[in-house]
């Protein structure tokens, strides 16, 4: 055992403890349900990404069981023997759903972003990335070695200044990349303006619909589709791990873009294809997403009621306008303490701390589900009111 390494790792962990940013695992039972069980206690689950409740839907589970009869694993990467008819037909269905020429499936959203950005961009290119984009986008940009202008959150002037400079500098190709729904704030990207700017400066635009897929659009296609912008966005990606309730991810766009990625994207080429059970579940979840108008309506209504309830009480819900409703607390220790306070009272609201969010903006990130019971949500709203006005407010807010 290397003593040098042991000492280094322990020092780093102690530092995280001191900052209040140490992470540990907390097993739960029935995570797929709007009320889950942890340590034998029932908790209203306000921390999952299972927005439509599909992770626990009998059809989606049944589809996995049926598909698993064909085999447990996919046996190789897509380009070797992992390209079965079920994944091929899923990609055709995805392109049809998104209204794009083509689509492809990835192992996960993280793998998609890291692989796509590093495949598209090189040293001579410049990428423009919203300050609050997901970590997988940041990592993909790092891996690409392209020059990066991280523009202030949703700040179009700051973005445009960077675009102008890049054109003056004669950068080879420009790419703007943004989350459609920001994962820790629940606000949305100004997609209409981003399309305008990308067209003005001859850039491409990639949109991460991780939290928009299944939730927005007439057939759950995402925020871009709900704004009628799909045709003007070069590449859309999204995950099956959130509203779809499964696992894996997709990219959708022009046929040339997808064919390029099949040839160049290392996180697509050098990894085993998703197993049949997962592909089977995604097919079933897609059926529900397409026909999910009522689920979406229920989710959006519940989120609105919840957000407005918290805002009336004076909580800082950041820019939330979606099913993701944070309350910004500030310090990491305070956010963790508030999360424990909630858990003691039957609510699971996980504290989100740096580096996931910027220093000093630790928060509880609530996320709503279409399948939450209204009574449970009302109870949570009432409890948060008590927390706000009772002596606890001094400790947490
Ligand atoms: N993009 C965004 C905006 C996300 O929030 C996430 C998941 N947290 C991902 C990508 C990664 O997706 P996955 O969980 O499927 O790896």
TrEMBL record:
<comment type="similarity">
    <text>Belongs to the class-II pyridoxal-phosphate-dependent aminotransferase family. BioF subfamily.</text>
</comment>
<dbReference type="GO" id="GO:0008710">
    <property type="term" value="F:8-amino-7-oxononanoate synthase activity"/>
</dbReference>
<keyword id="KW-0808">Transferase</keyword>
<dbReference type="InterPro" id="IPR015421">
    <property type="entry name" value="PyrdxlP-dep_Trfase_major"/>
</dbReference>
<feature type="domain" description="Aminotransferase class I/classII large">
    <location>
        <begin position="43"/>
        <end position="382"/>
    </location>
</feature>
<dbReference type="InterPro" id="IPR015424">
    <property type="entry name" value="PyrdxlP-dep_Trfase"/>
</dbReference>
<dbReference type="GO" id="GO:0009102">
    <property type="term" value="P:biotin biosynthetic process"/>
</dbReference>
<dbReference type="GO" id="GO:0030170">
    <property type="term" value="F:pyridoxal phosphate binding"/>
</dbReference>
<dbReference type="InterPro" id="IPR004723">
    <property type="entry name" value="AONS_Archaea/Proteobacteria"/>
</dbReference>
<dbReference type="Pfam" id="PF00155">
    <property type="entry name" value="Aminotran_1_2"/>
</dbReference>
<dbReference type="InterPro" id="IPR001917">
    <property type="entry name" value="Aminotrans_II_pyridoxalP_BS"/>
</dbReference>
<dbReference type="InterPro" id="IPR004839">
    <property type="entry name" value="Aminotransferase_I/II_large"/>
</dbReference>
<keyword id="KW-0093">Biotin biosynthesis</keyword>
<feature type="modified residue" description="N6-(pyridoxal phosphate)lysine">
    <location>
        <position position="242"/>
    </location>
</feature>
<dbReference type="InterPro" id="IPR050087">
    <property type="entry name" value="AON_synthase_class-II"/>
</dbReference>
<comment type="subunit">
    <text>Homodimer.</text>
</comment>
<comment type="function">
    <text>Catalyzes the decarboxylative condensation of pimeloyl-[acyl-carrier protein] and L-alanine to produce 8-amino-7-oxononanoate (AON), [acyl-carrier protein], and carbon dioxide.</text>
</comment>
<comment type="pathway">
    <text>Cofactor biosynthesis; biotin biosynthesis.</text>
</comment>
<dbReference type="InterPro" id="IPR015422">
    <property type="entry name" value="PyrdxlP-dep_Trfase_small"/>
</dbReference>
<keyword id="KW-0663">Pyridoxal phosphate</keyword>
<protein>
    <recommendedName>
        <fullName>8-amino-7-ketopelargonate synthase</fullName>
        <ecNumber>2.3.1.47</ecNumber>
    </recommendedName>
</protein>
């Amino acid at each position: 055992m290397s003593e040098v390494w042991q000492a280094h790792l322990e020092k780093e962990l102690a530092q995280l403890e001191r900052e209040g940013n140490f992470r540990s695992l907390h097993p739960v039972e029935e995570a797929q349900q709007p009320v889950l069980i942890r340590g034998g206690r029932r908790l209203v689950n306000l921390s999952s990404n299972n927005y439509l409740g599909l992770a626990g839907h009998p059809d989606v589970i049944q589809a996995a069981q049926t598909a698993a009869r064909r085999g447990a694993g996919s046996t190789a990467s897509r380009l070797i023997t992992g390209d079965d008819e079920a994944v091929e037909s899923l990609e055709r269905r995805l392109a049809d759903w998104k209204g794009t020429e083509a689509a492809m499936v990835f192992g996960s959203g993280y793998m998609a972003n890291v692989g796509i950005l590093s495949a598209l961009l090189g040293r001579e290119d410049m990428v423009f990335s919203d300050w609050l984009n997901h970590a997988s986008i940041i990592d993909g940009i790092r891996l690409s070695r392209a020059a990066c202008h991280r523009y202030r959150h949703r700040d179009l002037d700051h973005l445009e200044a960077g675009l102008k400079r890049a054109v003056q500098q004669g950068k080879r190709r420009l790419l703007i990349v943004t989350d459609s729904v920001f994962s820790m704030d629940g606000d949305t990207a100004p997609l209409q303006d981003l399309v305008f700017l990308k067209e003005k400066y001859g850039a491409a635009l990639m949109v991460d619909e991780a939290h928009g897929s299944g939730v927005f659009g007439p057939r759950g296609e995402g925020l871009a589709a709900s704004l009628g912008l799909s045709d003007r966005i070069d590449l859309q990606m999204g995950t099956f791990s959130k509203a779809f309730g499964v696992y894996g991810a997709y990219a959708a766009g022009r046929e040339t873009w997808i064919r390029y990625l099949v040839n160049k994207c290392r996180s697509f080429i050098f990894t085993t294809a998703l197993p049949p059970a997962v592909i089977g579940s995604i097919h079933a979840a897609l059926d529900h997403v397409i026909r999910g108008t009522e689920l979406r309506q229920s989710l959006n209504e519940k989120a609105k009621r919840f957000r407005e309830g918290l805002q009336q009480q004076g909580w800082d819900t950041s820019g939330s306008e979606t099913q993701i409703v944070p309350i910004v607390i500030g310090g990491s220790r305070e956010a963790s303490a508030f999360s424990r306070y909630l858990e003691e009272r039957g609510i699971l609201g996980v504290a989100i701390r740096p580096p996931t969010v910027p220093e000093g903006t630790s928060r509880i990130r609530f996320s709503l589900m279409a399948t939450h019971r209204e009574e449970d949500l009302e109870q949570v709203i009432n409890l948060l009111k008590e927390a706000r006005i009772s002596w606890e407010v001094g400790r947490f807010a």
